[in-house]
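Workshop exercise sheet. Pairs work together: one partner reads the sequence aloud, the other fills in the structure field after running the prediction. Swap roles for the next sheet.
Pair: D.N. / O.F.
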Amino acid sequence: MKWLSFCLVSLFFFTSIVLGVSIDGTSTVKYISDHYVFRDSDYAKGFVYLSQGFTVINGGQVLFDGVVPISGTLDLRETGIFTLERDVYFEHGVTFSSSGIINSSGSTLHLGGDFTIPASKVIHCRG
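Structure field:
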């Protein structure tokens, strides 16, 4: 029985890492210490802290409704869409490693200091 429980917990843990899941920080704080990968239609909501940034897969869209500033490297994989559901704050030193789209939906993107976009990359802003 212990072996079965271990296998099920391991399967759930590794599936979550590989497949990616939305992050709901509306009832508890979610601290993500590793670079996070969002799949299409994933979201981050509430008290979610992405300490090492995130990636949105090619052609995917993440809905961001977080209240904690974002830090680290953001990778939109050229065609990923980062949609703001509320005002979003970037901490000092945020870097975009690839091109992509920011869809503001009327929200504001607040830059907290140095902000880097490599010379060969383009971030399209709309909304």
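Discussion prompt: Residues 13-18 have pLDDT under 50 and may be disordered. What would you look at next?
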